[in-house]
Amino acid sequence: MNSRTAVDSEGSWFEPEQVTELRRRLPIPYVDIIPVRTDVDGSVEEVGLLLRASGSGQIVRAIVSGRVLVHETIREAIARHIDKDLGPMAMPRIPVSPVPFTVAEYFPTPGVSPFHDPRQHAISLAYVVPIDGETAPQEDALELAWYGIDELLAESSPLEEMDGGRDLLIRRALAHVGAA
């Protein structure tokens, strides 16, 4: 007998095969998090990007991202994914308001929107979250690197190593905070 329930916030209560089937049939709620380091005035100085293997086996730059679980608030989802990807000492400043800076709609069919995820139709609320603590790559991340704004906006940029339109999400985040 499976002891997991629909209100289990420690993980998905669906088996992996069920998640795959749900992804095929339903839009899935996600949070996309752009971790940043700020100066004393709150201006963004650096953006943290992960290096990880994509679903297709390519090594790509990535952002902190993941599903929102049942009975989990947006703030809890943001905190959980930051802890999972950046470590327990990251000390994020979770936004007071759950209003995202943008909504990214990822579609399994390329070209429907600038955002693409071959696994699913995902509706992702995107946040810029300042990080004050110590960070290190966790779980399946190979590396965590912090990039200055000029470095990200240069002609040859780490954003070129991102897939699924996430480079556009970073550019929108930088514009949102007045850094681009």
3D architecture notes:
With 180 residues, the chain is of the alpha+beta class. It has a single domain (16-176), classed as Nucleoside Triphosphate Pyrophosphohydrolase (Alpha-Beta Complex). Helices cover 22% and strands 30% of the residues. It has helices at 16-25, 74-86, 149-153, 166-176; strands at residues 28-38, 44-53, 59-62, 64-67, 102-107, 115-116, 122-130, 141-148. Strands 1, 2, 3, 4, 5, 6, 7 and 8 form an eight-stranded mixed sheet that branches. Strand 1 (28-38) and strand 2 (44-53) form a beta hairpin. The longest helix has 13 residues, at 74-86. Mean pLDDT is 91; it is low at 1-9.
List the helices and strands and how they pair.
Layout: H1 16-25, E1 28-38, E2 44-53, E3 59-62, E4 64-67, H2 74-86, E5 102-107, E6 115-116, E7 122-130, E8 141-148, H3 149-153, H4 166-176
Parallel strand pairs: 1-7, 5-6
Antiparallel strand pairs: 1-2, 1-4, 2-3, 2-8, 5-7
